[in-house]
Records
---
Amino acid sequence: MKSRPPLSLLMLPGVFLSVSVLNAAAAAEPARPDQPAARVGDAWSDARNPVTKAFHGQRLNLWSLQPVRPVTPPEDTAGGWAVTEIDRFTAGWLKSRPLPLPPAADARTLARRLFFDLTGLPPSAEQMETFADAAARGGMDAAAGALTDELLASPRFGEHFARLWLDVARYSDSNGFDWDEFRPQAFQFRDYVVKAFNDDKPYEQFITEQLAGDELVAPDMPEEKAAELRTATGYLRCGPWDNSAALFNEQGRARAEMLADLTETTGSAFLGLTLSCCRCHDHKYDPLTQADHYRMRAFFAAVKFTDNFQARDEIKDIPVTRVLQQGDARSEKEAVVPGFLSVRDPNSADIPAPPNAASSGRRLALARWITSPENPFTDRVMVNRLWQHLMAHPLVSTPNDFGLAGAAPQDPALLDWLAGEFRRGGGSVKAMVRRITGSATYRQASGNPPASFALRQPRRLSAEQLRDSLLAVSGLLTAKTAGPPVWPDLPQELILANPAFLDDNKEKTKGWYPSPAAEQGARSLFLIQKRNTRVPILETFDLPDNSTSCARRDVSTVAPQALTLLNGPLMTQAAAALAAKVREKAGDSPAGWTAAVWRLTLQRQPSETEQAAALAFLEKHTLTELCRVALNLNEFLYVD
Amino acid sequence: MNPLFSAADPSRRRFLQRLGGGFGAVALEGLLRQQALATRRAGTDPLAPFAPRVPDFTARAKSVIFLFMVGGPSPMDTFDYKPVLQKLHGKPLPDSIRKSLDAGKHANVTHGCKDELLGSPYAWKQHGKSGMWVSELFPKIAEQVDELCFIHSMQSDSNNHAPSSYQLHTGDIRAGKASLGSWTTYGLGTMNQNLPGYVVLYDAGPLGGAANYSNGFLPAAYQATRLRDQGTPVMDLLPPEEFAPGQRDSLDLLRTLNLEHRQSRAGLTELDARIASYELAYRMQSAALEAGGLEKEPEFLKRDYGLEHQDERTRAFGRKCLLARRLVERGVRFVQVYDMPDKDGWDAHAKLTENHTPRARWTDQPVAALLKDLKQSGLLDETLVVWAGEFGRTPLMQGDLGRNHNSAGFTLWMAGGGVKAGRRIGATDEIGYEAVDRPIPVHDLHATILHALGLDHSTLFFDSNGRQERLTGVAGQANIIPEVFA
């Protein structure tokens, strides 16, 4: 259910928090830690906090503003159903509804689920058989645990989890706007993210490097380490950029949009807060003032982009950050200094000198605040994303909005317990994945329950999983684990959808440059992600817009998807390749073909009914046509 | 639980019946799921997102054909006659106008220009009963001038193509928002379930690419579908040759196997929806082929639209206009037609006449024929036609007899759909630089178009990332332009 602020709050007259109030608060003290007494406290404890004035002390009961509580998992009341602590939470939640505790999934279901959820790819028939044998021999739990470890160690894990983060970080290989120029070095950031997940980089470090990797580069650091830190700042570069704005004397607008994007994306990605609303006015629901948007923006004021898809500070004459009336770069108002959310800390931020003396230290200060154990958002936001990635339905159904207009957590205690465990575990994503996938909650059979974080329904493959699966089962998937993106061969009419392609430049960034046929079978993660021209099969299956942070993908069911999967060029190719593979394995017998088609696509034997239907079909039609049908099956597209 | 599906099988039958037609989106289990995220406008059934819906109030128009002249056609060479500019040809920009521009938000529209005014090289005449001035560029549209309602005082917030074009389409200069066509189908559904509700037609797309006609944060069901004006009308509509003879049998086998799979998963509407989507796709093959069959039109009409014109580009734009008429006639809600046959469009930075003269020739006859045809068939009453670019052009000269972009004041026109014919709204200054009488922001235009469709812009919203997004902005501050209707 959606939590809405009570009407009385919504009807408060809009109060614009005077920036001078904030600045006065900041000026009242010299911003030195040795004089803590002068500092203004948070809005709960200190009446001088300007937010108290702006919002009349109301709206402060927002759940996500409260510290993460220490939680002890409840007693096991599920009579043996619960395997891990998580299950004790979910069992209690289900029993209080009251909803039945779901049964456990069978071996095949669990294996398919683990493969898709952890690597984004289906198991091969052999991998499925190995797992079934292990489960029969040593028990399902042990086999599933071993498989989880194996998949977590596979490079495919990082490739799949990177997609989660790249959606959140609005990753793209191009600028957007008129020319939508190719960013030839952007892939280095994508590879950094893949590697971060594969190396199980602690989440705090992952955040800090993206926001301020360059500021961490110390003079004596090995070059390899320094290069990785600088690459991480690609996060700051991912947003759209209007490269032709200067031609029309609108560079001010382009820079203001870039800074707004950095502020808003950072708010959504790490804090689950919508800082976009307060770009123009005090937030309608949450205790965020317009000044808060610009105080956050000021952390990025010195950012300059470099040619290699990285960012750094230019500390000579850092531009003063000003509040913009209605967010319009043409209407500048009062100046602000860097500061955190004033509801918690209205003072100007302390900005210690960073290891990199040539940088301002502003972004590092912001990263330290975001990753500090006192910050109530950061860990909750990330464990909610991981839960969603594995269970489809997150605990907070609005993963980029933990505010009053967003949803409240379905089980606040579980959310806080997970956040606490994540912190105690050093921000290890793999440990959290292991923790969630090891639960009976994760290993339940799917059914048709109400939408809930604790229950599973069959889940349709994402656009990337679908395309990758078609390639994988038909043997067309080509090895690629890093490097420059692959440009698919698109029909001319789609390339013309962006007129910029008709006007290539000498730097070769405005055209469309199809990769050789041998590279076309790369995983979808490695396909070029332009802003203004999208790969049709991915777009049809709900690829999100990459202009802004995307927390949760839409799952639509529309007729063009059927047309794409029946008649599109990838299906023609995949069906033919699969048929060839089947012939190789099963010779010329239709019964053998049917068994092989089922084994390769669904990792199981056909039932008698299925066998009969397929054999009747093969009397009139080709093996390739049967393969095409198999690759269109709901069972192929959905994971139980 | 969704109450519609509480019982297993009868509900499924009912469900499949409800899907009935439904070209585009069938059942959207995903949308059901999304209801947790998004408060939906009352009356929108997530299981039938394209089902026709009752507007908020009496609609003047049922459909929209938006003719978008990519690149920015020049008002002072087409529909905004400026005799003072003609007199001041070759002179510097008058101080009063420069001061006025510098004082406002459009000071940059003189950037990149010479300080030398460029009079229109075209001859102007008054036309029709209304006596409207139209330049010689559009002799055939001029014959229809009494049907048109001009707004001469449009303003947008960027002087660059993509941001301004995004704004004309989505209300925002940044990419990522939902376009007018997506909002319209979200608000009203569509009237023919076997065809897409929101169609785009182009040879080359608008500057700024697909972000212009994007569904943005709206569910993917409200994506635009590109139709072709020649050959197979939709990409991947027909099976490749090797699969064509077996298509029906393949669909039957697929259905059999999917129903088998479904047996142990009763009540999962998303699986049912996907089964139904294949039948819809099959039906759409014939519906789209039929709709795309321009050859069935009478010879005289094809000639009128320019399908026999000596210039291929006139023929190409004529096919798009004729196809647009066939689509709205068959119940398609929103057709966006782009005039963009090449990399430049109407972007006449140099040698205005070499750019505008041929482009006018390619579009004049088809657009005029569309207006005439809609009128004669009675469709004009319920079809709103809009003609616009992303901005206009400067009265100051740029480079060699060219004009730069101008977002400070530009002209568009509307026709049909209950708008007041033969009317002019607002005005630019004497040389056509800046809207001085009744400047109209893009949000007001959008509120007005939605109003014509019977939709209240302030209640048509979608919750996205904690914001109530509207076509007219989060604040929903926009005014309907009353003169458009009365």
---
Amino acid sequence: MSGRSPTGYDIATGTYEQARAMVGQTTPVRFGEEAVNGAMARQFAALVHDASAGYWDPEFAEGWWGGTVAPPAMLMTWLMPLEWRPGGAVPVPLLTARVPLPGDTFVNASNETEYFLPVCEGDRLNVVEELVDVSPEKRTALGTGHFVTTKSTVRRQDGAVVAVMTNVLFRFSAGATP
Amino acid sequence: MIAGVDYRQRHFEDVAEGEALVGAGDEITYRRVIMNPGATLDYFPGHHDPEYARSQGQPTIFVNTMHVMGFVDRLVAEWGGPRTFLVRRRVTLRASVYAGDTMVGSGRVLATRHEERDGRRRHLVDLEVTVDNQRGERCATGAVTVALPGRGDGEGTRPWWPPGG
């Protein structure tokens, strides 16, 4: 079962047992909507006030990185689905939203990313996500829910793995603390 | 050289274990929190809709994980310089950073070491980092490994290599 939750995302709902049954599943490869580009890289650098020359000086970036480089933290931005398309096609939600669990919202708990190669202007990224773990029910200050661990393997157009990210997200119902 | 852009580079030989990373405070206004979904394409409503955030038990909108990681990366880049390659970053989120808060980053060098593969060698530095708010509450802790250039590196040497091997 699934439905548009207050998050605005199409979140699958279900039981812990249903979620456990999905552990080990991987998604089909999903391609980024846009090539990595300096305009978006600088929007992010402007957000976090990062003056590194690799984002702001194309000549420096070409010499060291091989092109304007993407801030490592914005890795998943290149893989975000568009919010809208002509004809109204609904974007495929990220794997974490497709895990059937009782909670109707989520908050991120931790992230570990290992980087192998720089991501530069012109690269086309793709990702395969794997559901690694779903915890038993836990109670936190925000509410009761489950920790969902996913692993994203991000590749470049030539197949080279640029990064592997393991993320833990807390899926819960707000105020559902017994 | 472009004015205001950071070109200063720390080499591996300049690093001392125990050395501190001192970050500037960064005021997270509502404007900055709203920039966050635009810059990261993460439109989870807790990052742009205060009413939704309150329904989740949060006082108001808060920055996303990419923003916190970007702040950590900036702290490391300001210390290391623009040729620093981020090898690994682990961030544990302990409390949200809300609109109206100020993020304060700090860190410390835990270890320096070398890694070798296929006759190549790179210079690694392990760091611990923290992100606190203006009330001194710990919002995030992190462990970061970077590769820095060394003074004896050849002209074309780069501190990254593909996975495996």
---
Amino acid sequence: MKKVVPEIDSGKCTGCGDCVAKCPTHAVALVDGKSVIVRPEDCDYCTECEVLCPSGAVRCPFEIVLVEAEPRATEKR
Amino acid sequence: MLATADFLKRLPYFATLSPQALEQLARETRELSLDKGEIIFLEEEPCDGLYLVASGQIRIFKSSPEGREQVLHIARPGDTFNDVPVFDGGLNPASAAALEPSVVYLIPKDILLSLVANCPVGVAIIKQLSAQMRRLTQMVEDLSFHSVVSRVARMLLDLATVEGSSAPVPRLTQDEMAGMVGSVRDVVGRALKSLERAGAIKMEGHRLLVVDAGRLKEMSYVSDKSRIR
């Protein structure tokens, strides 16, 4: 299964490099003036890049999944 | 009965009724005289019907398990209250008590529903609006009485999709979660960590896993006295 990484909107990315500087695992780099997750295997989805991006170009959505077969919750669906 | 019929005719709900229909409605309407502070009905009780304020003031409020109150509305002469459960069939969404000596009229639920029964589309629309109003009332309760941790827990219980089911999996950023529970991202981030420490959820990369729905439900009812907003 392909590893899911933060979504970067290249249209909004200004190439300021803040995420590159602050990424704790150095998974992101500037490519042609835009931030790109160049080492997805290193990304631990800490969401720091989303927090600090000044242009709102980064999104880190979470899939919300019930993994416990709990009768009350499964009945709802 | 004439006085009751005259009063009913002045209300927008019944302004178009014929004199005969108004008289009939007045005969079915009960008048209640209330002392200051007297409780008319309580939240979560079955609904008796629609109430109309003839005189005085009625406090409509929610209560927390610790006894704190959030007033939703002060109903004054000419106002109705308890409209929602009449039309959506649920329990009373809030409590009502007289703020001062008051007189209210009670139109029994079945009588009121009979007035709209011949317009199924109208009934369906009213039901939908009532359900929306009930959700908003619940939101007021959550924002007033529950900590961010419990609001996040409730949101996750509502949204979580059973793994492997065909239902679409909700995908939310922490900012979007904050918007749903009336808080901010940092606080939601801390709430998620609290829920994870409690063993209710597990954060695995981009997946937020509800691993103990029972525990999450317990935490959704915590009304933390040192609430973080």
---
Amino acid sequence: MASPFQRQAFYRKVTYGALILGLFTLALAWRKGELKLFGMDIKGVDAQARDLSIREQSRGEVDWLGALARISTIGTRGAATCLLWVNALDAQKKNQWNELELYARSLTKLQPHFITPWIFQSWNLAYNVSVESDRVNDKYFYISRGIGLLAEGERQNRDNPDIRWSIGFFTQHKICQSDETNVLRSLSQLSMIPPNERDPGRFWKVSEGGRQEINLRELEDFCKMHPQLVRRLRQGIRKERRSEMLRQFRCERAEDMVQFLQDNFRVPSLWIDPRDSSEPGTWKEKQDAQKPLADRFPVLPPYHKTARPFQQPPDETALHDESRLLDEHDGFQVARAWFSYAQEPVPKPGNLPGHTEPIENPVVQRIPKHMMTIIFRSHPCLATRSTAERLMDEGWFDESGWAIPDWFRDTGDRFSDNKPALIGGGRAWSQDAWKAARDRWYDFGKVNRLLLEPSEQKNLEQRASAFARKKHIRVTDPAPPMRDEEMDPETKEEYFAFQFLRELGMYKTLCNFDVHYNRSQVESDVATIKARKIFFEALEAQRLRNNESEALRKYLDPDGMKAWRDKVLLSNKSYRTESLIQEQTFEIQLRYIDLYSRLNGRAFKAQAARLLAMPFQNPPGCGACPVGLASWIPPLIEKDWNNPLLGGPFDGNDSEGEPLVPEQARKQLLQRLFPSLFNTTTQDQPASPSSSEQQR
Amino acid sequence: MFAVLTFDRDPMQIQDVPMGLLSWIQVAGGWAAAGVLIWLLTGYRRMRAEEKAHISPWLKRAFVLSVVVSVLGYVAAGLGALATLLPKFPPALAYYAIGFGFTAGGVGGLLAAGLPFALGLASVRFRRIWALAKLSFKEAIRNRVLYGFSAMLLVLLFGSWFIPYKPEYQVRSYVGVVYWVMKILLLVTAIILAAFSIPTDIRRQTIHTIVTKPVERFEIVLGRFFGFTALMTLVLILMTSVSVVYVLRGVDPEAAAESLKAREPLYGTLHFENTGSAERGTNVGREWDYRSYITASAPNQEPQAAIWDFPNVPRSLADRDSVRSEFGFDIYRTTKGFENRGVSCKFEFQTANFNPRDKDSYNTDRGRWMGKGNLFSQKDIDEWLEGYRTRLSSASPPSNLNDRLEKKRARLTANKMSGDPPQYRLSETDIDDELAEEYGYFVLPAKDITDYHTQYIDVPAGLFRNAFQVSSTAARPGASGVQARVSVTQQSSTQYVGMAKYDLYLRLDDTKGGHEVAAFTANFYKGAFGLWLRLCLVTGLAVALSTYLSGVISMLVAGILYLGGGVIDYIQSIGLGTAPGGGPMEALFRLANRQVALIPLDEGTAATIATTSDVIFRWFIRRVLDLIPDVDRYDLTTYVGEGFNIPLTHLLLDVGVLGLYLLPWFIAAYYLLKWREIAGPT
């Protein structure tokens, strides 16, 4: 046996070894263990970390480069972030956009779970930087970079409704609602088309004489595949003023469109960037591969069938990253996908209108920070409505399609199969879109308790009145504070009804529910669509083809102004009382009267001169007809509908004696269309104290 | 912005050297005089008698003379400063006295401090320095410092995954990132090596094995400096070579078109017309006030114009087919304008021989000859030549009139077409070239400008041939000394086009040469030379500091001085009192009184005390400023990234500036190590 010292050393080693082993085992159990004991959940460190979502992996994708960068700052992350922020500001000041993006990305790598820098810097790129570039494709590039940055933030910060909403909003706002939206929408569509399909080399062929000319066969195929893109590039979109319409980017010739495709061949897209376009006459069809998800633009939410625990189910009708994007898809639909995705972490709507159920699990549920929840919830519906409006602005109403002017002139405006060069037909574009909007608003109203059945509404009103009587208050008064124990079951129900109706009124107003819902209903009606199409065609004839007599004939079509008044306005009270519709109606009237006076000017002026002798005031913008006349001689107008001298077609009143277009709506429109003539804002403002003192 | 270099300060030119030297003498001499004074007060008294006896009499006399010159110089400067307070004393004389006094004082100080140093250098031997340098080199390798550079591999392997760029920015981004990584790795390593080397030797007493040998102490400093610099230079060369391969592989065509080249620009001087000031155009309110903007004037007003004058155009440009003028302007829109279309500008190129009265004649001729559809009959050629002869003869005909006419005839008839009667083909470029030579004028009436992309105009070389002709007609007034002029006017009154001096230039290199990759590669190495200069700077600084300070302190001081060089403009603004908000006392006063920085300070005793204290503070800051190196001067990344050739003179001037900066530090190191008690008699 060894000496006592050796024995002691041996025992000590064994003891320490056992202790180490024991402690490690304990630590491991403490870390990995998870068990139920006497009904109690005992969770180890890992399980708690998972539940509280404090691990990198549980918060979203892990960026190993960011993690490396954070470690390499060896405790100076704060200082490094400040330095990067200052550098980013300096780079922006000096218009060094690439450096700015580099700094912005580095910043977010150092602080990936701080949401504000993601949103701020992506907004900075998509808005401030993009607007500094003069070329639209440069603008588009920085919009895509800004949105791409935010999408990266979203991947690293799952379940954040604000980031998701911002991605959607930036997309729809910058691409579909900006000044240069005609080009930006077109670029957005190019992003969705495989490069081989839009390869400019495809549309050129080399003739025997060595001349380069348009390959009409390939052009035809492209037009058929992408009618909306082609139409937008050829004739632009509806604009308020003629000058704006003419300043739009348009491709008068097919060659211009091919040049546009050439200039933007390497647009940020879903597809792997090709090095260069093919030479004329050498194009071959091939399959393009998509980029990795993180590099794609437009960015779409990830596909998932089921909801995460405690979250709302995904919107199955919205786009996702596995959707096949077609010509009809636009920035609004992409935005809608993000708005819908943003709803998932928001708790369910509550029992009262506009209310939200309390958060059950703060790890995966969040309330949006920057706007009221009910407005946040309405954004998918708003985006759906915007798609329908876009289709109307771009002239897609019914199944009739659109005839391509000029590009196929050599073949008599016919395709290779001898059929007219007509694209985009066979689908009720506007009706489908407005019906989709209506369905979404319906669902929104039901889920958020804003849309009630008449019987339900009546029942609530009765009970609310009973409560008001009991408490000697009016139904419109605020709900008095009540405690449950003070109330019997009947009073409880009545109190609930009282509260319900009060919240209903408030939240309906807040999100303008009635207007949106009613409008989507009326706009999906065939009569409305027909009338709108006629107005669009009249404007097109006047602006693009300079054919005023055709435009006038369109307005006078029975399905035009007359149907608009009788079948649309007079049949839908809530629709006709909406200020937007009233302004649009008055705009139609103005355009019609303007056309009429241009084409029948001499006779019109002679008649007007006779009528002007009458002692009535001539209202602004309603033709030569005195305002009162239209109201007391409607039969005259009916008889001679096409002579605005007797009053504009929409100068009359409805069955309740209210004007179809009130004075306020007229004024608004005139101020908007002719700001220099009708802008009376300064006159309407009350005089400042200093100016009144001076006057005194 | 592409194809444009932006300079917050104009780069140093050869002509700036005399003033720079004068300034250096005053600054370095001031510090030297201060050092001499400190030594006289403290060091001299401690010298032993035998040490004093070792000093040669002539050195003593030279030293005394230098000190006297220095003292007299500073006395003169002081008297000059006092004279500025006297109302009747001529201020010019007073300022001359100050300048002269500081220079004389500086020269005296430098001589007093530098003479023993210079004599000491005479006993320095390169053989010993080389041995010490080799030792330093080996030590550094044995310390495994090279392992740190493997971090560069991370960038080379994964950089392209994470560096975001627009296709045309690819080269710029890659250049920026690889230089940044090289800078960090090299400078940090160099500063650590240099700062810890001598103090570690002293601490471990291994320095005794050197100083006890017949080695000059200053040789240790030089040995360390050269050893570390040599090691880092090798690493730099290796890293640069790998980096250039990294940057050049798979360059995007758009990026290659923008940046993969080494342009040799010829810059002119910029002035504005009809903007209210010759120096500035309209201010559109941008935060960065680097560019000035022009717009179209009202119909009855003279057009706003930005004008670049080129006083020295090389004669070689006249021998080319065309000369490329590149530019990059900023656009500021106040209305949307037409979608997808730039802002239209008019570009006029003219020489000193051009008479503005000939504009109509030029336009008539151009319209006429362009209308010929590229085919000219003999009659057309004769008419053209006759018109040219008439114009040349209108004032005093040049002596070589016939020669010029014959040359022109030869050019016009060079491309003869078959057929009868014969016809001659002249392309539009040929016509523009001939007219440019004839009139000294070339105009592009409407060019769409867009920002963030390189744009260019190929100017007919005829214009430059005209520039070198002796004028026979009355040239425009004020054109003397200007060989070529470019005038840019804008055509839309709702849009603004912004430009700065360096935003337009003529390309001196041949744009059709096809050696762009080779030129870029060479330029990349020149850019690395800038990094090498910074490497020398930190190594020299850290070695010099480590002769007296401990390793950590040397590293920190060298690091702080280097980082201070990165924000030297800001420190300068504090030292000169131009920073918004004033100095620290004024800032404190404003904080206490809740006054914002941009409004004038309220008057009062406290405010006066604060501002006066700041005057003293600023004096100290200006002295500190003398110690801070201007490191941005050596940062040549922008040249490489933007695709501009780094001029050789730029590199030589940088070497000179670095040498002058390091020289006082080495003189200080010489004395500090010499007087340090290492293995000396106790």
